[in-house]
Design brief:
The chain has two helices and five strands, in the order ααβββββ. With 114 residues, it is an alpha+beta fold. The protein folds into two domains: 30 residues; 76 residues, no CATH class. Strands 2-1-3-5-4 form a five-stranded antiparallel sheet. Strand 4 and strand 5 form a beta hairpin. The radius of gyration is 23 Å and the shape is rod-shaped. It comes from Streptomyces coffeae.
Amino acid sequence: MSTLSRQTKVRMIAIPLALIIAGVWYYNSRGNTTGPEHQKKVASQTIDAGDCVQNKGTESDPDLKKVDCGGAAADYKVKENWPLDHECEPGLSKYQVTRNGRPQYTLCMEKLNG
């Protein structure tokens, strides 16, 4: 009976382990594309400059919903919609959507009603 070399044994363990790690990384890097959180983010991506939004969440955990600019529900008017990360002009509020810690887009908004 022949014995496997130490190098062959290491390869038998390292290759499947590397494939498992790569698979987990790939799955996690895609983000959640099926849950309600993803749907809210997709809806927010349809917000363009000139649109108005209502914050249905809090200042620290906003949940923006596109609303009619003439209505009382409008909290902010979007001045700019930037892909990825962007610093807004002074006086504008910044709303940024991230996925796995990476900015996906940034809204620069003017506060309405006060």
